[in-house]
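I'm curious: can you give me some protein's one-letter sequence along with its backbone structure tokens because I've never seen that pairing?
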Amino acid sequence: MGGDGVGAGVLDAIGGTPLVALAAVVPPGAARLLVKLEGGNPTGSYKDRLARAVVLAAEADGRLAPGQPVVEYTGGSTGSSLALVCAVTGHPLTLVSSDAFAAEKLRTMAALGADVRVVPSDGGRLTPDLFARMREEALRLRDATGAWWVDQFHNTDALVGYAGLGEEVAAQVAADGGRVDVLCAGVGTAGMLVGAARALRARGPLRVVALEPASAPLLTRGRTGAHRVEGIATGSVPPLLAPGDLDGARTVDEGEARALARRLAREEGLFAGTSTAVNVLGALAVAAELGPGSTVVTVACDTGLKYLAGDLFAA
């Protein structure tokens, strides 16, 4: 899990990522805002934690036999991480994705050896119907090939993988003489937010806030909608969310988040995508409300290198 010494293989490089304070974009009088830099994982995404946890757990308890094919539907980050882990563990992998997601992600999945099936979107938009069609194709492939279906939206082994992220944050903040007051982030499967939050809550009181695009306010207003923030707001309440996991949810304007992504790169040197900018924008609002003396933590989900072919950094 990251750190010193020589790892036995690339899976040992997952985790152990830095936690840093933001400065330039944080307004005066706000709480301290810390960001976990998950772009340091092997595929540049926190989904590496999920993929390693679910594949190794399924191998260990016999759900996944040696050499058995694996299938999943994905926006690309989970798929890239699964492709990495399956390459190392020797499982043929088929991934169902869409042209609505970054071309870099589709190419990464294929480069790591996955068979990528692309479901066409409605003009590049992320809609509930798109996710439903991707899921249907993944299930068809599972039934046709006898593959093990990862089922990331229901797979509780992911929570174990993300608990490590929460434990790292707790240790890093404690080493700096503090404690975490609020954890906030966007939710897709909700695995990261739930797994990390449960680990942090084992150390003390914690407020947990889910974030979602204002155009798809399912958790806050009970309705879905189209958006272009990859990795979150899939059009259904994540099954991994249990009563009591959240203390609240709030919306974030996607246009403001996209502008902030460019500011983060130019003013903080934090190079990441729109989902990270959603996280930071929501965390900034919480930090402004709390004021000095508190600590808000969020996550930089991945690296901006995954979004250079699109229009995010074109302005």
The chain is about 40% helix and 15% strand. Residues 10-41+166-307 form a domain with the Rossmann fold fold (CATH 3.40.50.1100). The chain has two domains: 10-41+166-307, 47-149.
